[in-house]
Amino acid sequence: MPVYLDNNATTPVDAEVLDAMLPYFGGPYANASSLHRYGRAARDAVDRARSQVAALVGARAEQVVFTSGGTESNNLAIRGIAERGAPGAVLYGATEHSAVLEPMQALAQRGWQVETIPADAQGQLDLPWAEHRLGDGDVRLISAMRANNETGVISDVTPLFAAARAAGVTTHCDAVQAAGKIALDVTELGADLVSLSAHKIYGPKGVGALIVLGDTDLLPQIVGGGQEDGLRGGTENVAAIVGFGAAAAAAKAKLAERAEHARGLRDPLQMQLQAMPGVQIFAADAQRLPNTLQFAMAGFDGEALLMALDQMAGIAVSSGSACDSGKGEPSHVLLGMGLDADTAKGAVRVSFGKHNTDDDVQALLAALSQLNPVNSRLMRSVAQ
Amino acid sequence: MTILHDTLYLDYAACVPLHPDVRAAMLPWLDCANPSSSHAPGRAAAIAVEHARAIVADWVGAQPDEIIWTSGATESNNLAILGALAGRAPAHIVSSRIEHKAVLDPIRQLATQGWRVTWLEPDTDGVIHADAVAAALQQDTALVSLMWVNNELGTETDIPAIGALCRANNTLLHVDAAQALAWLDIDVHAAQVDLLSIAGQKIAGPKGSGALFARGKPPLRLQARSFGGGQERGLRPGTLAVHQLVGLAAAAQRVVETRNDECLRVATLRDAAWAGLQQAVPGVLRNGAVDAATPHVLNFSVPGVNGEALVYGLSDLALSTGSACSSASPTPSYVLRALGRSDALAEASLRLSFGWGSTAEHVETAVARIAAVVARLRSLRPDNGGALLGDASTLVAPGNDPLASRVQHCQHAACAIDPGDACGHATTPANDAAVAIYLRQAGAVWQARFRALGNPATLAVADAVCEAVATLDVEAALAQSPADVLATLGLDRLATPAVLQAHDALHAAWEQAGHLARSA
Questions:
Q1: DSSP state of A66
Q2: Which of A12, A72, A233 is facing B74, going by the closest CB pair?
Q3: Which pLDDT value is given to residue B175?
Q4: What residues of chain B, 113 to 172, have a C-beta less than 8 Å from chain A?
Q5: Residues A294 and A232 in one domain
Q6: CA-based nearest residue to A219, from A74, A70, A69, A77
Q7: Is the Cα dihedral B394, B399, B402, B408 positive or negative?
Q8: From A41, A293, A316, A323, which residue has the greatest number of CB atoms within 10 Å?
């Protein structure tokens, strides 16, 4: 039985989520745009899920736009704003996910001034820099994540969003990793647009949402059919949306329980790792998601350690973002926090989920001590 | 297949319910890892994704690296049209008036950016001919986008002939094949198609699954529409929904295995339905070509009835009055208008569509229900000497419809109209459903009565307006917004025309009453 410690990459669909989805996987449920009873039943299910997703983040149901996932939500937010007006400047945090970074960079080819907000070694954004930059008056959009997928760092983005709002700048927050792991209220957050994804919170892959607050005017990116209030064309993926709703409801109800469970695994692991020679924990002093731990082990490339754990012990961890895996590049998140490329290349991420147990932690620790070249050398010296 | 609220499902062109075999193939993959992950569970997911890709590619005669996963045909159409033309100087596009909105809307977007568009008209059978494409092609035509099978009519386009024309003109051909893939044996390379949109939900696969075939050789300059983690070679980033893709492939495999038999079986059902309707519904008109059509769609118009009344009367049948995506819009089907049907006939048109769960018994039931409702609505027409109001209990099919209780408890229905009443008439644009509101002065109190031609939405709305006159006053009743009236009655916006109609009639009666009062 493999030990799955990669819950920031994706989570398995929860049993109660699956139960909610099953009727829409086999029953006579129809196109939610159809006006007959089957269509209305599908519409009702979609609307119920919309309320559940809204409730997870303190939004109103009508503020939820369903998409095919977090990447589409981020693209809709960024391109949807950018394509509504003439090029100006956009800012994003140095540690953003590639689904924010890439659409931002794509704007550069269209004449936009694209700049990153610097981050410190603990992953926190440079607020004075951003406030100063806002003063130039040419910034149209700021995107900053609530919690980082690799380090787990929780950013205090509210002051940044407040400053942007005061300057009349639209704000986007990628909350894909934060939702369901820490309490999240879009009103307190203060962003105009918030991205969510189902498969990070035990919902199905292939569904996400963009929360659109206030009168934020977006240019739709997928057109035809007028669904989602004209913001996202295409027949609603009813089963997936229902699953997202159920996952959101469970995440809200069990937020504290799940966080406590994850912390109960992560914190002891961190203590053990800190005692291990040659191990470096990233952003150890920052406020982080309770389930996430990123570290490097001296003498190991992150990707090599990942493969060793996978093949030797059947333990699934990540060397960074799943989206960036296999590319052999050092994590841009760690580079953005000022780490050098060699250190960054060593990064391995462990992210716990509700299925993990202390046995999983012990299995990982055992495998790491066996692999740790420092230990091997020690063992050899003892043997001699 | 189960029946919801005794409602018979006849809307396979809008959505084919997920087949149990497909569902069984999908379920094990709901728990899988992220296929972008390097570890063993991630690689297992990636292998499933690539296995599915090979099946879907083979199904349409493509190579696996020519298949890009998407969230459905709408996204595929957007990526094909906007992605293939991105970065090019505006030139010329050929498409048709009967395309799905997921093709019309991206092309309209390009039109606002300086692209010239030739919108082809279908012939009176709903077919877009290769000759018309040949005539429309210009030297700088960059893209032809046409559907292989029309979603409202089931009519086929001769794509291979058009493919040859486009190749010779150095023009890209995009084909929305969502409606075709369950019924036709498609080979994209033989047909010289450059871009083909595929939808899982139209082949008994899952909603939210789709693919775009994009020709590999010579390579297309397809540009991504979204950016992120580099999945699908950067053309369509985002974590792949493994269970959805496995489901799409399982559905494709099922199509390959059962297509020949299903085509025959479903064509038999459709022909039986048409034979039955011709017999039971005098004057019924078939829409779309009979010979060049896939077996799953039967579209027809019913003269002499109000379309809205027909839809409400048939609320125990799940069918379509046009594309499901446009059915929430109050305007009649643009496809049917393009065929030359009047607004009234287009409104009074039904699309029955069949698929894996359809049976001969379903067809019999549907034909009998349609015949009964049409006969009743026709009997209510004044030119047939019928009662204008009709029997409320038979106007609305049983169910939870808020309309049913309202119609059954109509308080203000007309029985005897005093010649001294002030009367206001209003009709729908189609002029085959009318409401008449009568105002009578008794002291300071105005009474309102109405007549309507069997349309339950109109009945309910007129009754509500009359009630408002009795409890408020005429001015206050007129001040009620259509949205308020719809909300009070629990009706959807499909009934908006009925509200406007009742208000028009009340206005007219109010003006006439003012005139009568002055002359008295």
A1: E
A2: A233
A3: 98
A4: none
A5: no
A6: A77
A7: positive
A8: A293
Average pLDDT of chain B is 85
- From the list A223, A234, A311, which residue is nearest B106 (CB)? A223
Q: Report which of residues B463 and A354 the model is more confident about.
A: A354
- Topology of domain B393-399+406-519, CATH: Sufe protein. Chain: A (3.90.1010)
Q: Name the residue facing A224 among B100, B227, B318 (closest C-beta).
A: B100
Collect all residues of chain A within an 8 Å Cβ-Cβ radius of residue B397: none
Residue with tokens 């008439």: B425
Judged on CB neighbours under 10 Å (0-12, 13-18, 19+), B185 is middle
Contact: A70, B100; criterion CB under 8 Å: no
For domain B264-384, is the CATH number 3.30.450.20? no
- How close, in Å, is residue B246 to chain A by CA atoms? 12
Distance from CA of B27 to the nearest CA of A (A): 9
Q: What tens digit of pLDDT does each residue of B315-356 get?
A: 778 888 743 343 445 566 778 887 888 887 888 899 999 999
- Do B15 and A237 lie within an 8 Å CB cutoff? no
One domain, residues A214 and A162: yes
Higher pLDDT among residues A30 and B357, named by residue: B357
pLDDT at B19 over 70: yes
Residue A164's domain comprises: 15-253
CATH topology of domain B20-255: Aspartate Aminotransferase; domain 2 (3.40.640)
- B101 and A CB contact within 8 Å: yes
Q: Report how many domains make up chain A.
A: 2
From chain A, the residues in CB contact with B209 under 8 A are 206
* Alpha carbon of A15: minimum distance to chain B alpha carbons (Å): 10
Enumerate residues 417 to 476 of chain B having a beta carbon within 8 A of any beta carbon in chain A.
Answer: none
Last residue of a domain, one of A201, A219, A253: A253
Domain end: A228, A253, A278, which one?
Answer: A253
Q: Considering only CA atoms, give the Rg of chain B.
A: 27
User: Which of B30, B108, B326, B356 should we substitute to test contact with A (largest number of A Cβ atoms within 10 Å)?
Assistant: B30
Burial of A285 (0-12, 13-18, 19+ CB in 10 A): exposed
Q: Mutating which of B239, B329, B333, B494 best tests the A interface, going by the most A Cβ atoms within 10 A?
A: B239
Residue A189: name the closest of A166, A155, A223, A236 by CA: A155
User: What CATH number corresponds to the domain at position A259?
Assistant: 3.90.1150.10
- Verify whether residue A173 is a known catalytic residue: no
| Same-domain check for residues A246 and A285 | no
As a whole number of Å, the CA-based R_g of chain A is: 22
Catalytic residues of B: 325
User: pLDDT digit of tens for each residue in chain A (384 aa)?
Assistant: 689 999 999 999 999 999 999 988 876 556 776 667 777 788 889 999 999 999 999 999 999 999 999 999 999 999 999 999 889 999 999 999 999 999 999 999 899 999 999 999 999 999 999 999 999 999 999 999 999 999 999 999 999 999 999 999 999 999 999 999 999 999 999 999 999 999 999 999 999 999 999 889 999 999 988 889 889 999 899 999 999 999 999 999 999 999 999 999 999 999 999 999 999 999 999 999 999 999 999 888 999 999 999 999 999 999 876 666 666 788 899 999 999 998 899 999 999 999 999 999 999 999 999 988 766 554 444 444
Q: Work out the angle at residue B314's Cα, subtended by the Cα atoms of residues B312 and B318, and round it to the nearest 5 degrees.
A: 110
Q: Is the peptide bond before A330 cis (omega within 30 degrees of 0)?
A: no
